[in-house]
Design a protein that fits this description.
InterPro entries: 3-OHacyl-CoA_DH, 3-OHacyl-CoA_DH_CS, 3-OHacyl-CoA_DH_NAD-bd, 3HC_DH_C, 6-PGluconate_DH-like_C_sf, 6PGD_dom2, NAD(P)-bd_dom_sf
Number of helices: 11
Largest sheet: 8 strands, mixed
Protein name: 3-hydroxybutyryl-CoA dehydrogenase
Strand content: 5-15%
CATH topology of the largest domain: Rossmann fold
CATH class of the largest domain: Alpha Beta
Helix content: 40-55%
GO molecular function: NAD+ binding; oxidoreductase activity, acting on the CH-OH group of donors, NAD or NADP as acceptor
Structural class: alpha/beta
Number of strands: 8
CATH architecture of the largest domain: 3-Layer(aba) Sandwich
Bound molecules: acetoacetyl-coenzyme A
Keywords: NAD, Oxidoreductase
Radius of gyration: 19 Å
Shape: globular
Pathway: Lipid metabolism; butanoate metabolism
């Protein structure tokens, strides 16, 4: 497959990061969001990151301008008809994703691949909204997208080998590493990461150690760049709880039961960095 043009649906933190790395790799990228303001915000954040990279000598000013030239603001979903690959990075809600995929199925080229950046929703169920489940796949980027080297590639029940190969090839051009996984609750990344975070919250809940102590154990003892509680704040405690619930429901074992303290923080609206308070306070 010859993929040259990409459309990204959703211009939030993940969507704009995904748009950036594809534009840097030379793809024409259409960045769409249901809110036009969010498209502008997404492009501005990319511009700022690229300027910082150029100022720090990590890229030339020419490459910075070329990358911005590859990016196009998109205010109508029908722009997806220009793309051979469409990557959805909208809200993590099954109803929203299903509605988007039904629309993409109508608007996209017949041969286009429809990918979702979902962190834990079943690809097979999303694909069932389309008449091309063989061309639907999961492309799970990690946050922050421009920095993290991994993309989890998730095959739904009907995803074809040809689609998987095309996506593995695209990821290689982004200079990232793809890991192919099957469609199972939490896939591989969150199946491993979220129980660790949940266990860190239990460790706090039971008074075994305090917040800084728990994070230092993992940072200094295991060389993790962030401790699990700091990382939970970075990801969003609502997202962590949501993924734990998917693991608990999907795998059915008590070891995936979300910690009551995690639920309490989410109920309090202490969602981490984005609300200014989680396990830490942020100004
Ligand atoms: N966007 C783009 N680039 C960023 C960034 C962001 N949000 N944050 C940091 N960077 C880049 C910058 O280039 C920065 O360098 P400059 O400041 O010179 O520009 C460089 O990273 C280093 O950043 P910092 O010096 O500020 O901090 P750091 O060295 O601690 O690195 C980090 C920050 C890369 C986020 C690092 O702490 C880290 O790797 N943390 C773990 C992140 C992680 O585990 N991500 C996965 C989350 S799970 C997920 O995404 C899946 C899911 O479904 C929930």
């Amino acid at each position: 497959m010859n993929i040259k043009t990409i459309a990204v649906i959703g211009a939030g933190q993940m969507g704009s990061g995904i748009a950036q790395v594809h534009a840097e790799a030379g793809y024409e990228v259409y960045l769409y969001d249901i809110s036009g303001k969010q498209v502008e915000k997404g492009l501005e954040s990319i511009q700022k990151r690229l300027e910082r990279n150029a100022a720090k000598g990590r890229m030339t000013v020419e490459d910075q301008e070329k990358t911005m030239g590859n990016l196009h603001a998109s205010y109508v979903l029908s722009d997806v008809s220009r793309a051979e690959l469409i990557i959805e990075a909208a809200s993590e809600k099954m109803e929203i994703k299903k509605a988007i995929f039904a629309q993409l199925n109508e608007e996209a080229q017949e041969t286009a691949i429809l990918a979702t950046n979902t962190s834990s929703l079943p690809i097979t169920e999303i694909a069932a909204e389309t008449t091309r489940p063989d061309r639907v796949i999961g492309m799970h980027f990690m946050n922050p997208v421009p920095v993290m080297k991994l993309v989890e590639v998730i095959r739904g029940l009907a995803t074809s080998g040809e689609t998987t190969k095309a996506i593995m090839d695209v990821i290689q051009t982004l200079q990232k590493t793809a890991v192919e996984v099957q469609d199972s609750p939490g896939f591989a990344a969150n199946r491993i990461l979220m129980p660790m975070i949940n266990e860190a919250v239990f460790t706090l809940h039971e008074g075994t150690a305090d917040v800084e102590g728990i994070d230092n154990v993992m940072k200094l003892g295991m060389n993790h760049p962030m401790g699990p509680l700091e990382l939970a704040d970075f990801i969003g405690l609502d997202t962590c709880l949501y993924i734990m619930e998917i693991l608990h429901e999907g795998l059915g074992e008590d070891k995936y039961r979300p910690c009551p303290l995690l639920r309490k923080y989410v109920k309090a609206g202490w969602l981490g960095k984005k609300t200014g308070r989680g396990f830490y306070e942020y100004n």
